[in-house]
Amino acid sequence: MSETALLQVEKLEVVYHRNITAVQGISLSVHAGQIVAILGSNGAGKSTTLRAISGFLGVDDARVTDGSVTFNGRRIENRPPNEITRLGIVLVPERDKVFPNLTVAENLAAPFAPWARKRGASEEFVYHSFPKLADLRNRAAGLLSGGERQMLAIASALVCRPQLLLVDELSLGLAPAIVADLTARLVQIRNELGLTIVIVEQNAAVALGVADYGYVLENGRCVLDGDSARLRAHGDIQEFYLGQSAGSERRSYRAVKQYRRSRRWYG
Amino acid sequence: MQLIVNIVVLASIYALIACGYVLIYRVSRVLNLAHGELMMLGGYLLVMTASMFSGNPLAAIAAAVVLSLVVGVLVYVLLMRKMAGEMVLAAVLTTVALGVLLRGLMLLIWSAQQQYPAEALALSNPALILPGGGRISTFAAAIVFANAFAYGALFLFLQFGRWGVRMRAAGQNPLFAAQRGINLHAVYALAWGLSTLTGSIAGMLIALDSGLTSSMSVIGLKAFPVALVGGLDSLLGALLGAGIVAAAEILSIQYIDPLLSDVVPFLVLIVALVVRPWGLFGTREELDRV
Amino acid sequence: MSRNTPRASGYFRTSYAQDFALIQTRFERTALAVFVIALAVFPFLATVFYLDLACQVFLAAVGALSLMLLTGYAGQISLGHAGLIAAGAFTVGILFREFAAPFWLTLPVAAAVGAILGLIFGLPSLRLRGLYLAISTLALYFIVVYVGGEYESTRGFSTGIMVDPPKIGAFALKNARAWYFVLLAAAAATLLICANLLRSRTGRAWRAIRAHEIVAEALGIGVAGYKLSAFVISSAMASVAGALFAYYRGFVSVEAFSLFLSIQYIAMIIIGGMGSLLGALLGALFVTLFPYLIEAVLMKLPNAQSYAGALFAVDYASFGLVMILFLVLEPLGLVGIWRRLQNYFVLWPFKYRPVAGGRK
After folding, report:
1. Structural domain spans, chain C
2. For domain A7-88+162-266, which architecture applies?
3. How high is the ipTM of this complex?
4. Is the pLDDT of residue A2 over 50?
5. pLDDT tens digit string along B24-37?
6. What's the rounded Cα separation, in Å, for the pair C267 and C319?
7. Rounded to an integer, what distance in angstroms lies between the CA atom of residue B50 and that of residue B37?
8. What's the mean pLDDT in B118-127?
9. Which chain C residue has its CA at the smallest distance from B231's CA?
10. Nearest CA distance, B274 vs chain C (angstrom)
11. pLDDT over 90 (residue C157)
12. How many pairs of residues across A and B have Cβ atoms under 8 Å apart?
């Protein structure tokens, strides 16, 4: 794909509380229509990157101190969340993803939709993609099960008619069958709408199953990237993220440290 | 019978003022302790428009109502917006300071003299005789109806209006609401506007009924326990709380000691804080928020 | 014990006693000596008007220090401070009128009354936090004021209770200069008590409770006990301030203890700067002198006489405005401004203090 990226992150640096650098120089690019996965273990900086893109940073006293985030040619780092939503990037957060005391229908009515006339069409599309939500229209969102809540979270994001959908930890706390169902629907929605999706996942199997391209983060840096087939076949990914050991020997801790150092320097 | 009439009138006054506290608290978790002064400002705005539209009471009232809405929005845009991300306590103290400022300004502009906008508008306030033998003044009856209308309108708006749903959403989870494209500043400004509007209407009607003194803001402060007893984020609670506090006040004036009138709401407040701090219908988690 | 003042390098402490000491450097010692001399000489140079101002500042300082302990250090927000001051004043008034009690009896009793009232004011803090606690203190303030008003009207003192100045034998305390030194001693004693409390285990417990109550409880700090102790100590001090106020003015009336007085005390600790004893003093100074400042400015304007009637309103309005300005623009208060100045001079040519171990 040689056209310019829809979303371009260049050497991003994010600092918490003025002295903890969570993300040190990450670069990634997302092209229109792609599903891109960001992988990594805890504390790697995945959610922070997503928050930097979506404007959610202010809550945790964090700031983008270096680098840039460019969307459709426009710089968007350090802008407030509702501005970024109106530009076309919508985040499905990890926690606090619905309005608990509003009904499902009200959860879908509250968000801002860029073209008011087409709001009805958006809601129809959402009920069509997630038929279960149509049955639960008048139930309070706080009473939904985990899977239904996640569906509602994605649905309320879709009502905003995003160009880019960011999904933070889709599989957290959900049964594998539900996760598989949700990811299948995501792919279907991408195909129908031409949406671009970035998913952040600790569960690499889920992510690589649905993504076209992937970035692997460790300790705030990007150590590996490639299309998902290549990543799935990569020995280190298989060992550390997919839990399939390459050989029969267990690697010692020293060997792992060696590996990580070599990756960082010669990556 | 007269006792019941008095309770209903006082409850309507308290409820109309209390819904202002509830609106702002529900939407932005800020306690607007300047509400009493804003309510008084409504009365003074009516005095001002009465002298501008001296022949036309309807125009004067309409102008004052519109002005009070504008004042509420301006207070948010010019002042409270700057405290929007700060600690709630700092925002509350800012409203306290705002109340002091408004009080001083009102004293400066209109002096401490008692004003009678009803006379200025050539409106009379005859006492109506109710079935059962009770008497109620015209404007007191107007307060009862205005209160019912305001609550009905607010209930419908919050439940079914698009911006009403947005206000409820912003109250529950402001950051997530911002992420769904809801403009928080617009929602908060709307809340402040509506709150000042209802408070000002109460102030105007009280001024028309019994005159406007510079100590009217005390009524605003007495209405605050009403909001708390009902639950700071519940309109229904404010309505019921108004009934309870008004009944307690009128009955203790009648049967115990007339001087108690100013302190009864706060006694009820203490009892409520001891027994059920989050109020009749408030959400329980409110308790731990600082 | 963390002190915020930046120091030039080369300052080392080699024992705990040194670390704990209130006055630590030679510069501080000399500065203190100069200040004490200035305070001692002042009454002999100043007119009665300025002496009265100074006395008012000292009285306000005692009240502000007590509120700073409660709200600035222990984190328990109290909007009803005027009620505690009123309680002390009324104790003196009632004891004097009913029993002709001498001052060496009324002052301790006032402190005790304050302590008991503080216990009552503090009980809600065991269940409530933040805004709800502030509201409960407000409600209790109204009740205290109501009781005082009731006493006044039922005992026929509708214009207020007159109190004679304190007497030892034949010597009555009426001289302005004498009052200056008495109140200066009271303020200094309060400051010392506060500083020592904050250096002790109690002070550390209070700071922990303010920072994070649940963690403090988890660390074994008896949160309930320390919260109540904060209320009790602070209220006892405020009561004594009220008692002194009653003797100084010779007059006790419920109108003097309006809600505005509570707001003024809150303003003192905010404008001064939360979490700092110096802030309490600066705030007390600022808020006490503010109306006089406004009056002086107003009198300088042309056509001064016509403004005289509006003085109270201008006072009120400008006070609200200044409070708003501090809350919006300088939340760290006068102390914040002072520290920024200090930082600029001490750290020059560097601009920023090191992050580690520094509070804002």
Report:
1. 34-347
2. 3-Layer(aba) Sandwich (3.40)
3. 0.87
4. no
5. 999 988 999 999 99
6. 9
7. 20
8. 78
9. C132
10. 7
11. no
12. 70
Of C7, C2, C254, the C-alpha closest to C149 is C254
**pLDDT given at position B290:** 35
DSSP letters, A52-96, are HHHT-GGGGTEEEEEEEEEETTEE-TT--HHHHHHHTEEEE-SSS
DSSP code of residue A15? E
Which one-letter DSSP state was computed for residue C70? I
| Model confidence pLDDT, tens digit, residues A63-74 | 888 888 888 888
Nearest CA in chain B to C258: B218
Fold designation for C34-347: ABC transporter involved in vitamin B12 uptake, BtuC (1.10.3470)
CB pair distance less than 8 Å for A110 and B178 = no
Interface test with A, best of B176, B281, B284, B286 (most A CBs within 10 A): B176
Q: Is A105 an interface residue toward B (CB < 8 Å)?
A: no
3-class state of residue A202 by DSSP: coil
Q: Is the entire prediction scored with pTM above 0.90?
A: no
Please identify which residue in the block is written with the tokens 């009198």.
C299
Dist CA B176 CA B170 (whole Å): 8
Q: Would the pLDDT of A252 be above 50?
A: yes
Phi/psi for A217 (5° steps) reads -110, 145
Q: Is C316 on the interface with B (CB under 8 A)?
A: yes
Q: Which two tokens stand for residue A77?
A: 């780092």
Torsion on CA atoms A124, A125, A126, A132, rounded to nearest 10:
80
CA B257 to the chain's CA centroid? 27
Q: Does B290 touch chain C (CB under 8 A)?
A: yes
Residues B79/B204, Cβ–Cβ less than 8 Å: no
Dig out the tokens for B155 from the structure: 């209930």
Mean pLDDT value across residues C305-325: 85
Q: Which of A97, A106, A160 sits opposite B181 (nearest CB)?
A: A160
Q: Which residue spans within A127-181 are E strands per DSSP?
A: 164-168
Query: Cβ–Cβ of A110/B184 closer than 8 Å?
Result: no
Dist CA C343 CA C337 (whole Å): 10
